[in-house]
Every structure is written in structure tokens, then in C-alpha cells.
Amino acid sequence: MNHRKFQPDRIIDASGCVLGRVSSQIAQLSLEGNKVAIINAERAVITGSEQDILSRFQKRMEIGSDQGPYYPKRPDRIIKRAIRGMLPYKRKKGRDALERIRVYVGNPFETEGEVLANTSLEDPSQIRYVELGLISEKLGAKITW
Fold first, then answer.
1. CA Rg value for the chain
2. Is-contact 37 14, C-beta < 8 A?
3. What angle do CA 2, 98, 86 make, to 5 degrees?
4. What's the half-sphere exposure (Cβ side, CA atoms, 13 Å) at 142?
5. Is the Cα dihedral 86, 102, 17, 46 positive or negative?
6. Which end of the chain is more exposed for a tag (fewer CB within 10 A), N or C?
7. Which helix (H) or strand (E) is 36 found in, with range?
8. Strand-strand pairing, 101-103 and 36-39
9. Between 132 and 69, whose confidence is greater?
10. Is residue 10 helix, strand or coil?
11. Rounded distance between C-alpha atoms, residue 90 and residue 88, angstroms
């Protein structure tokens, strides 16, 4: 697997983190030149009701054709796509920043990852949310995690 060659400066644990919050901070870290590995992608969350979130993702998938745009089903690729949206990926600095990011389902590293500040749900019992692993299952991704 590629993670043996990729030596990250920071390992970020996405468990219980809100997708948008963690994506924006990782995009910023990568633009600053850090190599970032994101672990436990299937445990990241999106806030909102399950029905609304699933309908939004299914709409994104239906827009595509044989030639694109392709929208991912797997949780690691959904996170990478969210981060790409926060980078100027059509320019060289954005492409370079995107290459410095790796997203993993599970934890292939020996060490535990850090949780970035202000990315976790404050009170999970008060907020409706859905984990990316569940969204991926409903979209039809092959479950390998």
C-alpha cells in the first residue's frame, strides 16, 4: 500500500469530526506545505437529517454521465473531494497541496491521530448527523472497511 512511502507531517483522526470543518482546516494545512494523512474516514460525520443528506448525495451522483462529473461513493474519496473543493486545484499550488493529502479508511499507521480543534460535534445528542460510512453504504459502495 502507498502509506509506507508516504511519510506525513500530521496524522489527523476524522472520527466524529464534521466533514466541512475538518476539510477546511486540512486544506489550509496542506496549502502551508504540510503532508497530511487523514485516518478513520468512515467515521467522519455530516450534520443534518439522514434523508436530506442522502437525497443531496444521490442528486450529485445522478448529474454525472459517462464522461463526468464523477462523484465518489467511498468515504475516503468523499473527504478528498470535499477538500479539493476548498483548494484552488486548477492551479499549480492547489494541485501540489492536493498531492500532499492522503485519506484512509481505518488506521494503517502505528500511531493514533490527532483531532483538530473546533472540528468535533459539541453535543452529539442534540444534533442530527450521519456518518460517512453509512452514506457510502446507502450510495452502493463496496464495503471493505
1. 15
2. no
3. 140
4. 1
5. positive
6. N
7. strand 36-39
8. parallel
9. 132
10. strand
11. 6
